[in-house]
Design a protein that fits this description.
alpha/beta; five-stranded mixed β-sheet; five-stranded parallel β-sheet; elongated; COA6
């Protein structure tokens, strides 16, 4: 009857004393989280609990909403009409919520199971993601291209389009949507979710299906990208990011880097900038030495020097036995710190101090630092991403990625979409295996 899913053990039923409102809500949430409603036994047991759970009373709005939310999500996840009807029958017996916000959301979940041309406003919804997915699946099933298109355009970060690409294509073909319109809807979705690049796996497993389905020509070319002038974050934006990193360091109470050591970064960079007449970080690259040398200070970096005029290093003080030799090798081009854990912060701060055009050589992805420094501030997150996406060059076996004269951006150039495709984790034999594809309609 249903696709099998991982086992789920039911420990209680509505007749058990322990199966109170909180227990039932937790159980429903766990089934949804694990997608175990695809298992026939789990589905039927959960349905039995729903049908036997009483929602009479003044303090059960949370349970009422949880029940309708569960029913709505499962209803749109299965195709069996008999099972859907059993869910709808239970939904019709759930008492209405009393609290206005709960009642409104309960009604939205219930309405998603009914055919309609209307798409509600999800702006103030507590379960916005779940509701949008429910309505998106409803419109795919109804083959309503207008509503499918509008949901994707209005809520690209909530619509799981890649998971429903086959249904999406069926709707488009059923409604005889033009190749140009379909590509624009699909590519704007990809751009909204990641304006910088497309993951290699998504390109191969999802995008190629769309392109093949509509006979779209895909060319491996970088020529058009070089016609667009490369941009950088502004000096003001760089200052905002520097300030955020500074506050993070000082608020950590020297848990990551000593204040005295951190402050010498700006002093040393000013010396380099003055001596070499550097401005805005142009032709400057900061190398994460220990990362590039795989735990050791590197002995050569010709591939970097061949691509960048000014190569500077951030590292820790070498062990005493080799210190003189290593310092001599760097020839005055390294900033040394005495705490290994400080490397990431020193490198980021050093790069920004040189200026917004500075590049970085590292395989570090800085995810934890991004989370801590930006603290969910969307403006800071965008500055961080705009800077690091273009600044960072991955490395392998003493070689780095070829220097780019363009921004990594998913965008239209001369009415044709251009997609940077890469393996962000760098697990490819060719580092990130970066390619630029042009989409011709």
């Amino acid at each position: 009857m249903l696709e099998m899913a991982p086992q789920f053990q039911f420990l209680a039923s509505p007749s058990d004393p322990v199966c109170n409102e909180k227990t039932t809500q937790s159980l429903l949430a766990e089934v949804l989280r694990c997608h175990t409603y695809f298992d026939e036994t789990v589905f039927l047991n959960t349905l039995k609990i729903l049908s036997e759970t009483k929602t009479i009373g003044n303090r059960t709005d949370g349970l009422r909403l949880a029940m309708i939310r569960y029913i709505g999500i499962v209803f749109h996840s299965i195709k069996d009409e008999k099972l859907r009807k059993s869910l709808s029958d239970v939904a019709n017996k759930v008492d209405k919520c009393k609290i206005p916000t709960f009642k409104a959301e309960q009604e939205l979940f219930f309405a998603s199971m009914q055919p309609s041309e209307n798409i509600p406003n999800f702006a103030k919804c507590m379960h916005k993601t779940d509701l949008i997915v429910c309505y998106f699946r409803r419109e795919l099933e109804a083959k309503n291209w207008k509503n499918v298109r509008d949901l994707i355009a209005l809520h690209p970060k909530f619509v799981p389009l890649y998971e429903h690409v086959d249904e999406f294509l069926k709707v488009a073909k059923h409604q005889k949507v033009t190749k140009e319109e379909l590509l624009d809807v699909f590519m704007h979705y990809a751009q909204a979710n990641n304006p910088y690049f497309v993951e290699e796996d998504d390109f191969n497993k999802v995008m190629k299906i769309v392109f093949k389905s509509y006979n779209v020509t895909v060319s491996d070319t970088v020529s058009d990208m070089n016609t667009v002038k490369k941009t950088y974050i502004s000096v003001k934006e760089a200052s905002l990011l520097k300030k955020a990193i500074d506050e993070y360091v000082y608020n950590s109470k020297e848990g990551f880097v000593k204040s005295k050591e951190y402050e010498k970064v700006a002093v040393r960079v000013r010396e380099w900038k003055k001596a070499r007449k550097l401005k805005d970080g142009k032709n400057v690259v900061v190398v994460d030495s220990l990362n590039f040398g795989v735990g050791r200070d590197p002995v050569e970096w010709n591939d970097i020097s061949n691509q960048f005029q000014h190569v500077l290093f951030a590292t820790r003080y070498p062990p005493s036995l080799v210190r003189d030799k290593v310092i001599k090798r760097y020839d005055g081009n390294a900033l040394f710190c005495d705490k290994l854990s400080a490397d990431d912060l020193i490198i980021l701060r050093m790069a920004l101090e040189f200026g917004p055009q500075t590049s970085l050589v590292t395989n570090d992805q800085y995810r934890d630092h991004r989370r801590a420094v930006c603290n969910l501030d969307p403006i800071l997150e965008k500055i961080w991403d705009d800077f690091l996406i273009d600044a960072v060059y991955r490395h392998k076996d003493n070689c780095i990625e070829p220097r780019r004269s363009y921004n990594l951006r998913v965008r239209k150039i001369n009415d044709r979409w251009h997609i940077p495709v890469l393996n962000f984790e760098g697990s490819s034999e060719n580092m990130r295996n970066l390619k630029i594809y042009r989409i011709d309609t």
